[in-house]
Amino acid sequence: MRFEGKTPKESDCIERRPELEESAPDVTLDTMQMCGVFQALGPDIFHQLVRGISIGKLKTYQVYERFKVRAHLAKLNSESLRKAEPKFWSRIEGGDEEFATDLSQVFLLSHLDMIVDVLNFLGIPNEQGFFDKDLKPEQYLTEGWQKRVFEQFSSKYPREILLFYINHLDWELNKTDQVFVPAA
Prior knowledge:
Elements: E1 2-3, H1 18-23, H2 34-41, H3 43-51, H4 55-60, H5 64-70, H6 78-93, H7 97-109, H8 112-122, E2 131-132, H9 145-153, H10 159-174
Helix pairs in contact: 2-10, 3-6, 9-10
């Protein structure tokens, strides 16, 4: 996750999908936006991502109240997230990029341990999972990096969040129009 001179406290899950795995090389997005990443990964992966949200980590990183407001929830807990998931997906399908960006941050904050492991594996300098917004990715994200990361961590972390983070990192650093989904 990028940060702009802020500390992490100030800064703003896996079921296989064979149909995606078979079509992975053909999956592209016209303009890579966060809604497009979620849509390309599909509703099943999105479901698992929502189930993996850590309320405690949202409170720790002071995004609990902000997300509760952005998610249009009176209460923010596991049950309200589960019930709101179809509405969240509708907002993603409707192209609500601000919400998609907030939601992606919630997913990532809930899995900072994985982010630190991935960034360290790639050699990307970071402070507890947060890296400089001006980072030049070329030396770290060399050809085939997505596959190497997936192979290294797919047995340690839920497939859904790992796939999401790989695609999020690629979107954030490379501004890619490709979605990585490994073959079976």
